[in-house]
Amino acid sequence: MLTGRGLRLAFGAAQALDDVDLSVAPGEVVAVVGPAGSGKSTLLHVLSGVLVPDGGLVTFEGQELNGLSDDARSAIRLRRFGFVFESGDLIPELSLLENVELPLRLQGRRDSAAGLLKELDLADVADRLPWEAPDDQVLRAAVARALVHDPAVVFADEPVMAVGDAAGELLLDAFTGAARRRDAAIVLATRQARVAAYADRTVFLHDGRPADSPI
């Protein structure tokens, strides 16, 4: 479904990715593991079409992303991809419900997110603003926003770094469970072995290159 082959990307003299391969099947959870600066976030940005690689090829559902225009890649991200970031990145002026429903509204859809909020234990706090909610509820809302439009792939960059171990495990259980029920794949970037343990498969990066194990 989603494949990157021979991916290379440099920022000036710094080689962020150097001949990296990654393939993701429908419904699969893949963890990209490495220390800070290893290229994990860059790889997610390249696979999702946010960045265009200097070399190599990204293919999604049989379509090459590299040669598409910025607008075309943005349209794919809006409709087929979801994103979860370390701090949640919710819009502070919108309620949790309004944040979750934002991808639907941007697509002109009138679907309700109420069922997903209930599934992720947010129904009772849906009217809260992000700054009124604890970090674990903000991150649950970010997960709901990433899944609400039934994406094919969710890209998650250190999604539980902002919460403790117990809250992180509950969030990861809810996140991976909700994604699998929708047959959505997850590409998960993390430095933490406890987070990678939720994946079906783990790939390692070091200094932008594939590695055989954590370094």
Short recap of the structure:
With 215 residues, this protein is an alpha/beta fold. It contains seven helices and ten strands. This is ABC transporter ATP-binding protein.
Secondary-structure blueprint of this entry?
Blueprint lengths: L1 E10 L2 E11 L4 E5 L6 H8 L7 E6 L2 E2 L5 H11 E4 L11 H11 L7 H6 L15 H13 L5 E5 L7 H17 L3 E6 L2 H4 L4 E6 L2 E3 L4
Parallel strand pairs: 3-8, 3-9, 6-7, 7-8
Antiparallel strand pairs: 1-2, 1-4, 4-5, 9-10
Helix pairs in contact: 3-5, 5-6
Organism: Dactylosporangium maewongense
Protein name: ABC transporter ATP-binding protein
GO molecular function: ATP binding
Mean pLDDT: 94
Q: Please report the number of helical segments.
A: 7
Strands, count: 10
Q: What is the CATH architecture term?
A: 3-Layer(aba) Sandwich
| Spatial strand sequence of the major β-sheet | 6-7-8-3-9-10
Could you say what the CATH topology is called? Rossmann fold
Main CATH class: Alpha Beta
Low-pLDDT stretches are: none
Helical content (DSSP H or I, runs of 4+): 25-40%
Protein structure class: alpha/beta
- Report the end-to-end length measured between terminal Cα atoms: 29 Å
Q: In percent terms, what proportion of residues is strand?
A: 25-35%
Radius of gyration: 17 Å
What coarse outline follows from CA principal-axis ratios?
Answer: globular
So, the CATH homologous superfamily? P-loop containing nucleotide triphosphate hydrolases
Total discrete domains: 1
The main β sheet shows up as: 6 strands, mixed
- N-to-C series of helices and strands: EEEHEEHEHHHEHEHEE
